[in-house]
Design brief:
Number of domains: 1
Strand order of the largest sheet: 3-2-4-5-1-6
Shape: elongated
Strand content: 25-35%
Largest sheet: 6 strands, mixed
Distance between the termini: 11 Å
Structural class: alpha+beta
Number of helices: 3
């Protein structure tokens, strides 16, 4: 059996986001994420506040919802930031406990993959389809 992975199939994580239901005070979450990422906070799509960790060039967006149908915070890693976050997960360098908050549930809300490869006689849609099924 072939050992297949995102890398072997030229797939790159392009977006990962989580929902933290009920979390509206993101002060502690911001401080917990700063060792890994620069943090931008958007509230109800109005104001934006940025917090910078000078040693990293990777970013995370915290989007707060307080008055809509859902109350909570989305944690969004997009583009190269999503790929970096996935790398931290795969290498066990991300401490999942920083996303634990009593009384608030964490759920995965979205994962996007990017696939880009030049045409090659060795690469067939059948091989790619079998990877997705596996």
């Amino acid at each position: 059996m072939t050992n297949i992975s995102f890398n072997s199939e030229d797939l790159v994580v392009d977006w990962i986001s989580f929902n933290l239901a009920g979390l509206t005070d993101i002060t502690l979450l911001t401080h917990r994420l700063l060792p890994y990422f620069n943090v931008s906070v958007v509230t109800e799509n109005q104001s934006q506040i940025n917090f910078y960790n000078c040693r990293d060039s990777y970013n995370v967006l915290l989007r707060q919802y307080r008055k809509t149908y859902w109350v909570g915070t989305q944690i969004i890693f997009s583009g190269k930031n999503g790929a970096y976050f996935y790398k931290l997960i795969k290498t066990h360098k991300f401490d999942w406990s920083i996303l634990n908050f009593d009384g608030h549930s964490l759920s995965l809300s979205r994962v996007d993959l990017c696939f880009s490869r030049s045409n090659d006689l060795d690469h067939t849609s059948k091989l790619f389809d079998s990877f997705l099924v596996d």
